[in-house]
Amino acid sequence: MFFYRSREECELGQEVEEFFSAFLGGRQFGIDWSPNIDMNDNGKEIIVQAELPGVPKENISLNVEGGNLVLSGEAPLKKDQSKARFYSCERRFGNFKRSIPLPNDVDTTKIDAAYKDGILEVKIEKKEDTSPKNIPIA
After folding, report:
1. Exposed, middle or buried by CB within 10 Å (0-12, 13-18, 19+), for 13?
2. 3-state DSSP assignment of residue 109
3. Cα(67)–Cα(100) distance, rounded to whole angstroms?
């Protein structure tokens, strides 16, 4: 048996889910959701991949603020869906923001970002030599 839900009911369901998830990961005021990411180190660069399905590239903002990579924007709800009755609503829409702490050994002046098939890939080069150095004391 299927039950119809309005857009408002879907939004309310998202808000309830986010409220309870706030105890685990935290939610920033005014932010509807946070994209899932993978972050790895291949030795010469840090690679961050964020899932942003259905989000137009022009709706995505990427910044470096205080040692964090900040990803924000908006996933729009299609205009023809604003009055629709839903059987299920699991896809995210609305404003999003994700602040990703960066390691100390990255060069934030050397960042490349590409967006393809709903995945944002950000590559941040590591600094040349960050290995510990022994300093002789005179």
Report:
1. middle
2. strand
3. 9
Whether the full predicted model's pTM is greater than 0.85, yes or no, is: no
Strand order from edge to edge, sheet including 37-41: 37-41, 45-51, 119-126, 106-116
DSSP string, 56-89: -GGGEEEEEETTEEEEEEEEPPPGGGTT--BS--
Strand, coil or helix: 49? strand
pLDDT tens by residue, 18-76: 565 555 554 444 557 889 999 999 989 999 999 999 899 999 999 999 999 999 999 88
Q: In whole angstroms, what is the distance from residue 17 CA to residue 94 CA?
A: 14
